[in-house]
Automatic annotation (TrEMBL):
Gene3D superfamilies, per the entry: Immunoglobulins
Keyword flag tRNA processing: no
Entry-linked CDD domains: FN3 (cd00063)
Keyword line: Repeat
Fibronectin type-III domain location: 154-245, 341-436, 439-530
Gene source species: Amphimedon queenslandica
Pfam families reported for this sequence: fn3
SMART domains in alphabetical order: FN3 (SM00060)
Domain of life per record: Eukaryota
Protein's recorded name: Uncharacterized protein
Lineage: Eukaryota, Metazoa, Porifera, Demospongiae, Heteroscleromorpha
Keyword Repeat carried by entry: yes
């Protein structure tokens, strides 16, 4: 390849670039310097910039080894040979040369290095001329460009801590590296390519996005400076596990409140807790819901009816994330005495000496616990005589009363109880049915020769409303039928037309609507007729 010019070089001195495609169609560049003697004397180079410029080429500071470039300008002649070393030891480089546009003969030289080593990097530049040695009294020189590259220490104390502001938010922190101007942080999921999440001059960074709950991540941090290679990386692994509470428990249970306690989740402590409560009395299906925010352990849930079953949900507040840490934890409040009486008292099969008593159950909102039995007390209002029966079992709501007195008012009182705690009583009055009356009492008489007057008192046991009295009589020696008489509203009767000095059997009995009672019989004798003696006074 030759560069030919027929005319003089004045005004045409400098570097000529020839672009020649090779057999593969790839352009190759040939640079030729053409000078007059005077120009050659002025371009005795190459003269390189004494200090190289550093640029990191690796897309990631985690690259091993890191790839970087060292660049410098060469004037006074094109560089033909570039050889580089670090700390005096030659290194392999990739070289590129570009003619800089503009006046003068300047070539931009860039060497690419893949190495992680601190020290003095130096490149020696020379060129080969058509004629070796001195030309027109000018001897070509060799120039040197160098740069000291440092590598800062690997950060220490690298930790990953989960934040309470979100379930998948992490705080990364490390110790300060002396002299470093920045730090780059990465995360890596499984064997995927590490992803840069922050370039910072601080030693703490919060990762609020990109992470997923339930995954395990490796975090990396490297330090670097303005003209330095990135340090080796420090790494830490963290699993973004779901927060779990294993000791959510109840410490105190009363009839009206429940105290709950728990320890913070092992994975990450929330900012605060919310509690959802769903309660219903054991005897009914309707549910009352309640939510309480910003609670802490221990927490007392109040305003709960006695003997209510409550389901609790514990919710962790992690900013916008609010997962359920515990669900459907069941607690039942204690029982207390019933505060409501039984329902309606119902009387059936009411007879003169017996009746059946039944009653409706205690309303649910007044039971306050399982009804375990009833005390039934029935009282004869007339005699003020009471009897109490203990009926066990909350479902036994019927009892037969026997041995009662006919046509008598009874007060029936029923007290429900919850184990040993009595509730209020409900009472009703019921009158027994009529029966046949008892015998009359205190039957007396007055007599004349032809008449017997009898009187009596109301039966001691009337057993109903006395509707009439029946009187019977006949001579005591007679076996024939009785003479019958009736009276409705008196306690006396006069029997007339009798035979003087004659014995009579007289009976009296009372009637109710049911029928007659027993006879009360007596024998009474009419008196003699007295003869008047005529005393003749002589």
């Amino acid at each position: 390849i030759a560069l030919a010019r027929r005319d003089g070089l004045s005004g045409y001195e400098g570097l000529y670039k020839c672009i020649i495609p090779d057999e593969n169609g790839v352009n190759q560049t040939l640079v030729v310097g053409a000078y007059t003697d005077t120009g050659y004397s002025n371009n005795d180079g190459p003269d390189a910039d004494p200090t190289m410029q550093f640029s990191l080429l690796s897309t990631s500071r985690l690259a091993t080894p890191p790839v970087f470039s060292l660049s410098f300008n060469v004037s006074d002649g094109p560089p033909t040979t570039v050889s580089c070393s670090v700390n005096g030891t030659g290194i392999s480089t990739e070289l590129s040369r570009v003619i800089v546009n503009g006046s003068g003969s300047v070539t931009r030289v860039t060497v690419t290095v893949g190495l992680r080593e601190a020290g003095n990097y130096q490149c020696n530049i020379s060129n080969a001329r058509v004629t070796h040695g001195t030309i027109s009294g000018v001897t070509p020189v060799t120039s040197t460009s160098s740069l000291k590259i440092s590598i800062f220490d690997t950060p220490t104390g690298f930790t990953a801590t989960r934040l309470s502001t979100g379930l998948a938010q992490v705080r990364l922190s490390w110790s300060t590296v002396s002299g470093a101007t920045g730090y780059e942080v990465y995360y890596q999921l499984s064997s995927n390519t590490p992803v840069s999440v922050s370039n910072t001059s601080f030693t703490t960074v919060n990762v609020f996005t990109s992470l997923s709950q339930g995954s395990t991540y490796t975090f990396y941090v490297v330090s670097y400076g303005s003209a330095s290679l990135p340090s080796g990386n420090a790494s830490v692994m963290l699993t973004i596990s779901n927060p779990v509470i294993n000791n959510f428990t109840v410490t105190t249970t009363t009839a009206s409140f429940i105290t709950l306690t728990w320890s913070p989740p092992t994975a990450v402590v929330p900012i605060s807790y919310n509690i959802n409560r769903r309660c219903s009395r054991v005897c009914e299906s309707s549910i009352t819901s309640n939510s309480t925010t910003s609670v802490s352990s221990p927490h007392t849930s109040t305003g709960i009816p006695p003997y209510s079953q409550c389901a609790f949900d514990l919710i962790g507040v992690y900013g916008a994330d609010q997962p359920f840490l515990k669900t459907n934890y069941i607690v039942t409040t204690l029982s207390t005495a019933p505060t409501a009486p039984v329902g309606d008292i119902i009387f059936s099969s009411v007879e003169s000496v017996s009746m059946t008593v039944s009653w409706d159950e205690v309303p649910c909102n007044g039971r306050n616990g399982p009804i375990t039995g009833y005390y039934l007390t029935y009282t004869n209002i007339t005699s003020n005589t009471s009897y109490t029966v203990n009926i066990t079992g909350g479902d036994n709501r019927m009892y037969n009363l026997t041995g009662l007195i006919p046509y008598t008012n009874y007060t029936v009182s029923i007290i429900p109880y919850n184990y040993n705690m009595n509730g209020p009583a409900r009472q009703e009055i019921q009158l027994t049915a009529e029966s046949i009356p008892g015998v009359i009492s205190d039957l007396r008489h007055a007599r004349t020769p032809t008449r017997i007057n009898i009187v009596w008192n109301l039966p001691t046991m009337p057993n109903g409303i006395i509707t009439e009295y029946e009187i019977r009589y006949r001579e005591s020696t007679s076996t024939g039928p009785y003479n019958i008489a009736n009276t409705t509203n008196t306690y006396y009767y006069g029997i007339v037309g009798l035979i003087p000095n004659t014995s009579y059997t007289i009976g009296v009995r009372a009637y109710t609507s049911i029928g007659p009672g027993e006879w009360t019989d007596r024998e009474y004798t009419t008196i003699k007729i007295r003869k008047k003696l005529l005393r003749i006074l002589l």
